[in-house]
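Support reply, case 0932

Customer input (verbatim):
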Amino acid sequence: MTEDAYARAGVSQGDADAAVASLVSALAAAAPAKSRQVLASGHYANVVRLDERTGIALSTDGVGTKLVVAEQLGRWDTVGIDCVAMNVNDVVCVGSEPLAMVDYLAVDRADPEVASAIGRGLARGAELAGIEIVGGELAQLGEIINGLDLAGACFGVVALDSLVTGASIEPGDPVIGLPSSGLHSNGYTLARSTLAGMPMDDERLGRPLGDVLLEPTEIYVKPIVELLHSEVDVRGLAHITSGGLANLLRLEAEVGYEIDDALPVPPIFALIQELGEVSDEEMHEVFNMGCGFCVLVASSDEETAAEQLRVHYPGAKRIGRATADAGRVERP
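Our regenerated output:
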């Protein structure tokens, strides 16, 4: 495949960026004169001012075409974990503690067994994140959907004087990377396109390919909340999804980032790149490449933060630093 393999597989990131910009522009034009919105658009979550001290953090996301793999295998018990993860991992990025979620399941026809399996995954994800799922919606949309779609919305609370936006990041601050569990829930259109000729029971990666592809997205909430409650000066939190480490640029500081000691890349990524002939650049644009979350702290707190995070993730380490070269992410 060529450099634009993702577009050839059916997803245009450029079109998506343009569509999001259009949505944001239309919403901004209709914004009330006195808005409760605390952050500018573009962060992982936004915060609504409840009063002078407290904010409500909000975010929404879905599982994407990982659901196609679940349908192929007839295994629905893990995608609920993905749904929770994609939402809570974003909400915690503003320094908020996620509290609850609602889910939205759109189907061509209602199947109680499938719904039960998805529900078990949602319940497991909620347990891992320490949240409740307090409601949701099941919509039968046979005229406009073939299969199903699963998404959710999450909220949390945050003290407004404890927001973590990235604004306090300074050149030299360390970037600590936390390992991903695999593909997470991004890039599956490209992954499925490149792996289309492989049977799901192929074990060249040490276990069946289907198991590798359905490995749930890691939920980082509890270790991050613990760090936020510690004495560590946490300056930035980044959920690494589509866009890879360029997601660091969503943080507010006028800095850049140099990644000089990346985390190990799980074998699934090398297999996708080899079979799809995908360039290094595009792999890093589409996938997390083994790093699912980044934490930026004050330089003086690097070792303390790394030690705390390694209790949960032994592979956690400094992967780079913030630089004065604003707007750029450099990697080997």
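We compared this against your earlier run and they match. Two observations from our side: Residues 11 and 290 are 22 Å apart (CA to CA). The chain has a mean pLDDT of 94. Please reopen the case if you see a mismatch on your end.
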